[in-house]
Amino acid sequence: MAFSDLFRKKTVQDILRQVEKNESDGHNSLGKHLTTRDLTAFGIAAIVGAGIFSTIGKASADGGPAVIFLFLFTALACGFAAFAYAEFASMVPVSGSAYTYSYVAFGEIIAWIIGWALIMEYAIGNITVAISWSDYFTGLLKSGGIDLPQWIQMDYLTASNGFKDATALMATGKPFDSLGEGLQNAYIAWKTAPVLGPLHFVADLPALFIIVLITYLVYRGMKESRNASNLMVVVKLCIILLVIAVGVFYVDTDNWDPFAPNGVAGVLKGVSAVFFAYIGFDAISTTAEECKNPQRDLPRGMMWAIIICTVLYVVIALVLTGMVNYSNLNVGDPLAYVFEKLDLKWMSGIIAVSAVVAMASVLLVFQMGQPRIWMSMSRDGLLPAKFSRVHPRFKTPSYATIVTGFVVAIPALFLNLTMVTDLCSIGTLFAFVLVCAGVLVLQNKKDIPRGKFRTPYINAKFIYPILLIAGITIAFTINNKATMDFLTNEKQVFGPADIVTSLNQEQAMAVHNVLIPQEQGNADLENALASHQQAGDYEIVVASLPIPDSLKYESGFSLFKHKIPMWIFLVVLLALLVWTYRRNLSLIPLLGLISCLYMMAELSVWNWIYFTIWLIIGLVIYFGYSRRHSRLGQIART
């Protein structure tokens, strides 16, 4: 097989002819039910979910009120990417999303890679949302007097890791009652779970329940899914507007000072959480074949969804950080927490109900998106033909929908929230980067049929170098220390929890003797270290501790490896400078590519490693099955 065959491309004309054939024979066609209003509702349904009800708290705790700038930056980045999606959706109105767009722009191997990455976005994204839904649902049951055992409402990894951390902290003098609620619950789940030999049976059964329910609804049909989504969107928008209307009367502007307590680094620390709050608008593009007028309605639906959600996010973030101090918001249910703290428990109950509805709607949209990606890949021969089977009565990709249910349900029983959130973010950002790059690749090709929507063209040949110089100037002036620490790989001090949980019993005793007077007895070691963080002498105190430097600081390659994603980003910036100058690239998709790649660089190196492993597995499948069964390959051989 020639190397060039890996990059064989589909033409827009062939794709459109195939869609017309499917519609004329009726065997593989999907029902057309969606309008701009429905698509906007699907977008809001997908975006407003776990992000606003859970991850917004962690981002606000890290960045303070200034987290609104991160919401605006992320909205801008998603807006740039949405322009690229909208142009492709108008050009190629089929149910393949970024997978089909990459097939046209880059060729088969890149299309396979992006299709495989989209499995990570939709499937793992739904695992994340199902876990969050389970947390809110069990909390709602508990407030109603139904307290489920911890071992059936928590995933295995969280229970196992939480038990180890709780045990380590209690060994250094931290009382069980002083542990965070999450660690307490993990410890109890692990200790009370049924045991079979060395195996503890811990599984998130409510997450399994909601996935089975949503999968059944998606299987039944697009019209039913649309109606359920629209109803859930109305409910959660009403609740969010109620939260804003009530919360604004409890805002204390003193809580907005300081506005950016942890500086730029603190704001950027929430990139993964905030970006996760925007994931979903791209799922609209998977419904292209079910739109009445996809070339007009898809672009409008995406843009309206992003605009509406951004306004809601910014207002909610300002209200939350105004109602309580930002440092108190690092909780799993920040909206319910702030009203409970202000003794407005009736509002907490309403928010819990709306969170359950909101996250169910996110599950619905993502659970629709995944089967349609698989259906498109199956039509091209890259997956078995069963995945493109359309139910004769319900007009949905039936087999792919059932498989998606299993792919989401089983891992949701065992994986933890943080791991899947970051993996979902990196898979989605990768898709955004390639879609933006695809628009740049096709921008000057004359033989491509264009849709009704095109991204406004602004020549970036001179604007991009000016922006790059401005960025370098800011880095070496306003943010000079952080920039120099990055370039020189300056060692970084570990946080209190990292230090305490890494100590053995002898080291813990030695640290205890330095930090805590004898008359206080066996006091909490983590709190003692954290108090010095607040006092501002943390680094001096850590330097004086009688333990090896490897337990105090991260340095050398162990520190540098976390900077590898950012170095990749910087190298790509220079490559884009050359490409832009030579090809007069369009500014909007270029900025979309850069901003999404930057957010990828802000994720940990472990996410890049796990993502790379996922892509390698995908390539093994491609070369083992898909390459030989590719429709384009079969046509070339005949």
Poorly predicted regions: none
Using only C-alpha atoms, the radius of gyration works out to 25 Å
What portion of residues belong to β-strands? under 5%
The secondary structure category is mainly alpha
Number of helical segments?
Answer: 29
What strand order characterises the main sheet?
Answer: 1-2
Domain Cationic amino acid transporter C-terminal: 587-630
Keywords: Membrane, Transmembrane, Transmembrane helix, Transport
Organism: Flavobacterium magnum
Transmembrane segments: 39-60, 66-86, 199-219, 231-251, 263-281, 302-326, 346-366, 399-419, 425-442, 462-479, 564-580, 585-601, 607-625
Describe the structure.
With 638 residues, the protein is mostly helical. It has two domains: 3-145 and 207-442 and 449-458 and 586-636, Amino acid/polyamine transporter I; 156-202, no CATH class. Helices cover 69% and strands 1% of the residues. It is built from 29 helices and four strands. The strands form two sheets. A two-stranded antiparallel sheet has the order 1-2. Helix 4 (67-91) crosses helix 27 (587-601) and helix 6 (108-143) packs across helix 9. The chain is globular. The model has no long low-confidence stretch (mean pLDDT 80).
